[in-house]
Design brief:
With 534 residues, the chain is mainly α. The protein folds into two domains: 386 residues, no CATH class; 135 residues, no CATH class. The protein has 24 helices and four strands. Strands 1-2-4-3 form a four-stranded mixed β-sheet, with helices on one face. A hairpin with an 8-residue loop joins strand 3 and strand 4. Helix 9 packs antiparallel against helix 10, helix 9 runs antiparallel to helix 15 and helix 15 runs antiparallel to helix 16. The longest helix is centred in the N-terminal third of the chain and has 33 residues. The radius of gyration is 26 Å and the shape is globular. The N and C termini lie far apart (95 Å).
Length: 534
């Protein structure tokens, strides 16, 4: 007997197809936006040390602190080295790898947010996940660095993985292995950016007081497991410290103090004091409507969490408290550097977004939730960088305009005109991509060079630094085959000598009979570049 036709399977298939199409649309859009940023954003001299350090590790086996000054924690270097090994387009590959980390963070965030609304309709949970992705992808702090070869994306991705594993681990019957792995991830994030060490404090407090363990000894066992993982992950950092303690100390502490003094020397006036930092935060982050909506939501969520925790404790409230605490410590750490830059406020963004959606999931009436979505959407549309996004995606089908490709072509031109040997420049990634060697003081670009004169001769010797006082001696010992200038025309040693960072190179070139062999203006750079050949 034939069964009567039922439209339900057909409707279910249509619904599933629509869901798949929606998810694929989000994924493809995110990939296109991230890729467009990789190929379109201009070169920042902040990228030099993260690219060049990986280039010299692959080409010559040089280690940070040991063989050259380095101004961050070292774990980004071996990760970037994988990209250098896989492609001759070093900057392109490293930028692409860091955008992959952004993509992974977005996927983790989408998963965590949609799971919060698993008891709601799939449409609602997907809309919540999409809203979280939008807030993340177009956050002003991320917009300042997205697509560049820096060390923020990896640290954020690792911290989100740590949160995901921690969240799962504390609910297991045997949580210690998960918390050991979480400790490893927190240690790895710290090894990428030192400011992420603050993550350990809220996680430790949660293990000690809030985790739903059934047996008392589990708190001690899990605490030991967590810090054991942290210790294991930081062992390579310890090894580098013992091999070059003074260089490590300089890169992670002394340079930070010198950079503040340098900014004072050039009369830089923004975000140099705590009140000025707060003002900077309002003028550069909260001025964006979507970011303002996100932070307002975070404040309201935090207040809501406090009220709920006073009334009763449950697992949802405790996880909300954890995400709030993680946001607070990372936000506080963002204010620590002097001066501030927008990218420092990227670290707390995913946890602030999670806190907002944790709070949203606790609201009982769906009407309120839709009102929040409407508010977020309106704020996003008000501040959506439409022109910038169109401009960036518009060059995807024009490879000749891709900045990393232009950088590689410039490196090929340097390769054609420079004799074999070392090239001295404050922009080391170009000769290194061309297969040349460069000098160790300049692997981090201009940063050590412009602050080293602030130390005495004894201080420079103590930290193994080179300034313009020692430049001629260093170059006479190993004369350069070429000198590249024109990369730091906007910077000087003080407020009255802009462009003077490269003057010692020009003086050396003229004194030792180097001639301006070629001057040209690459499309990716706003100034003329000159190659000096003997």
């Amino acid at each position: 007997m034939l069964k009567p036709f039922s439209p339900r399977p057909v409707q279910a298939n249509i619904k599933r197809s629509i869901e798949i199409f929606f998810l694929l649309s989000i994924l493809i859009s995110v990939i296109l936006i991230l890729f467009s940023r990789v190929i379109s954003v201009g070169i920042s001299h902040d990228e030099y040390q993260f690219v060049a350090s990986s280039q010299v590790l692959v080409a010559q086996g040089q280690l940070p602190y040991v063989d050259y000054p380095f101004l961050h924690m070292p774990y980004q270097i071996p990760v970037n080295s994988i990209a250098v090994l896989l492609s001759n387009y070093h900057l392109f590959a490293i930028r692409g790898l860091n955008s992959f980390f952004d993509l992974t963070s977005i996927l983790i965030l989408f998963f965590l947010v949609t799971r919060l609304f698993k008891n709601q309709s799939r449409l609602f949970s997907y809309l919540a996940g999409a809203a979280a992705v939008i807030l993340f992808l177009f956050d002003p702090a991320l917009l300042n660095i997205s697509g560049r070869a820096l060390n923020h994306a990896l640290a954020v991705m690792i911290s989100l993985l740590a949160f995901l594993i921690f969240q799962q681990g504390v609910q297991k019957k045997q949580p210690a292995p998960f918390l050991f792995l979480c400790g490893v991830l927190v240690g790895l994030a710290t090894g990428v950016r030192l400011s992420y060490a603050v993550l350990a404090f809220p996680l430790f407090l949660y293990i000690l007081f809030l985790a739903p363990f059934h047996l008392p000894y589990q708190r001690i066992k899990c605490t030991i497991a967590f810090f054991a993982g942290l210790f294991v992950a930081l062992l390579p950092v310890g090894m580098l410290f013992f091999k070059a303690p003074m260089s490590f100390y300089f890169g992670n502490y002394i340079y930070i103090k010198l950079n503040t003094i340098y900014r004072q020397e050039v009369l830089y006036q923004y975000s140099m004091t705590l009140p000025a930092k707060v003002r900077y935060f309002f003028e550069n982050i909260l001025i964006h409507p979507a970011a303002l909506a996100m932070y307002i939501g975070f404040v309201l969520t935090s207040l809501y969490m406090i009220m709920k925790m006073v009334k009763r404790k449950n697992e949802e409230n405790q996880l909300l408290l954890l995400s709030v605490l993680l946001s607070v410590v990372l936000l506080a750490a963002s204010f620590a550097p002097t001066p501030l830059w927008p990218q420092y406020f990227f670290a707390p963004v995913p946890f602030i977004i999670l806190s907002v959606f944790y709070g949203l999931s606790a609201i009982k009436k769906s009407t309120y939730r839709y009102l929040v979505f409407i508010g977020i959407t309106a704020a996003f549309l008000a501040g959506f960088p439409l022109k910038q996004t169109i401009r960036q995606t518009g060059i995807i089908n024009e490879p000749g305009k891709w900045v990393p490709v232009q950088v590689h072509h410039f490196a090929e031109q340097v390769q054609m005109i420079a004799p074999p040997g070392k090239i001295v420049t404050l922009a080391p990634i170009y000769p290194l991509e061309a297969g040349f060697e460069t000098y160790s003081p300049f692997i981090v670009g201009p940063f050590v060079w412009r602050t080293a004169p602030l130390l005495s001769a004894e201080g420079r010797a103590k930290y193994h630094l080179t300034s313009f006082h020692e430049l001629e001696t260093m170059l006479d010992a190993h004369p350069p085959s070429a000198i590249l200038t024109g990369f730091e025309q906007d910077y000087g040693f003080d407020a009255y000598q802009f462009g003077s960072l490269e003057m010692p190179f020009l003086e050396y070139a003229k004194k030792h009979d180097y001639k301006p062999y070629k001057t040209w203006k690459p499309d990716f750079w706003p100034a003329n570049i000159t190659a000096w050949i003997k």
